[in-house]
């Protein structure tokens, strides 16, 4: 597709459950190579918007275009990697290695029951290496920390070489010490790999660290612009979107070496 064309175009999108509007006349674009953070309070429609983008719901009013195609007819879902909230969902007895979890990310591309060829295994190892987890490839995923597990889930999403990575509250269940290292990883994937990222997050203080643009959603889209423009918003305007006082707390920059393993 044309690299100048937005990967996602949302036009006049509205959605309701029963009689309650959860999205109202949303217009938004996700540019190729960008790192967009969508922020907003609970109940603001962020989860519904993600489901619409991922094709789990169909637009009721308005349209979504994915990679230049109407979302209702878009079938190339392997172009999209998805990392959901994990919240420590794996216990120490979960019987799968890091390699096996990441390899499962090839199912969309290869089919569920196809054996991995040499080139497939190489793709898996490249994905594991891209998130700095190569020394854990044979480790049971349940033995890893929350931050390490989230790195593995990103590798799983990257195994199929997507053009767009969508993340839903990716630091839920990740200890505070590991969060900054996690955002460093996402920023590196965006800068060095040219990967387009869309992240839903409650962590307003982190959006200015690595993302290139910010969208503030509370049923309606109240703001969409560059990170610099977002930082220049008056706090009373941001608090008005959330319905309560909000402070932008920036994470302390630590060296990339510190917390490297996201222990």
Q: Which structural traits does this protein have?
A:
263 residues; alpha/beta; six-stranded mixed sheet; four-stranded antiparallel sheet; 10 strands; globular; disordered C terminus
Task: Please tell me about this protein's structure.
The structure is a single chain. The protein is α/β, with parallel strands linked by helices and 263 residues long. Helix content is 30%, strand content 23%. It is built from 9 helices and 10 strands. The strands form 2 sheets. Strands 6-7-8-3-9-10 form a 6-stranded mixed beta sheet, with helices on both faces. Strands 2-1-4-5 form a 4-stranded antiparallel beta sheet, with helices on one face. Helix 6 links the parallel strand 7 and strand 8. Helix 4 packs across helix 5. The longest helix is centred in the C-terminal third of the chain and has 18 residues. It is globular. The C terminus is likely disordered.
Secondary-structure element series: EEEHEEEHHHHEHEHEEHH
Q: What topology, given as strand order, has the largest sheet?
A: 6-7-8-3-9-10
Determine the number of helices (DSSP H or I, runs of at least 4 residues).
9
Task: Identify the overall geometry.
Answer: globular
- What is the overall pLDDT average? 83
User: What level of helicity do the residues show?
Assistant: 25-40%
Summing up helix and strand content along with how strands pair, one would put the structural category as alpha/beta
End-to-end Cα distance: 40 Å
Uncertain runs are 251-263
Radius of gyration: 18 Å
Number of strands: 10
What proportion of the residues form beta strands (DSSP E)? Answer: 15-25%
Main sheet overview: 6 strands, mixed
């Amino acid at each position: 597709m044309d690299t100048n064309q937005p990967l996602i175009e949302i036009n006049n999108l509205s959605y309701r459950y029963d009689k309650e509007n959860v999205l109202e006349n949303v217009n938004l674009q996700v540019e190729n190579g960008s790192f967009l953070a969508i922020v907003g309070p609970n109940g603001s429609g962020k989860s519904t918007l993600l489901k619409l983008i991922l094709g789990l719901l169909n637009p009721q009013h308005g349209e979504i275009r994915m990679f230049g195609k109407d979302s209702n007819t878009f079938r190339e879902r392997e172009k999209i990697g998805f990392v959901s909230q994990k919240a420590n969902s794996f216990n120490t007895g979960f019987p799968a290695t890091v390699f096996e979890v990441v390899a499962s990310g090839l199912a969309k591309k290869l089919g569920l029951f196809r054996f991995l060829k040499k080139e497939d295994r190489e793709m898996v190892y490249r994905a594991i290496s891209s998130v700095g987890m190569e020394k854990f490839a044979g480790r049971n995923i349940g033995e890893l920390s929350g931050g390490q597990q989230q790195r593995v889930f990103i590798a799983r999403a990257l195994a199929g070489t997507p053009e767009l990575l969508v993340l839903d509250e990716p630091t839920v269940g990740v200890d505070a010490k590991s969060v900054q290292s996690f955002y460093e990883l996402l920023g590196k994937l965006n800068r060095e790999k040219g990967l387009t990222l869309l992240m839903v997050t409650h962590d307003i203080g982190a959006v200015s660290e690595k993302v290139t643009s910010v969208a503030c959603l509370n049923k309606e889209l109240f703001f969409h612009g560059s990170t610099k423009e977002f930082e220049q918003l008056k706090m009373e305007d941001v608090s008005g979107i959330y319905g309560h006082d909000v402070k932008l707390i920036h994470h302390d920059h630590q060296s990339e070496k510190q917390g490297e393993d996201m222990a």
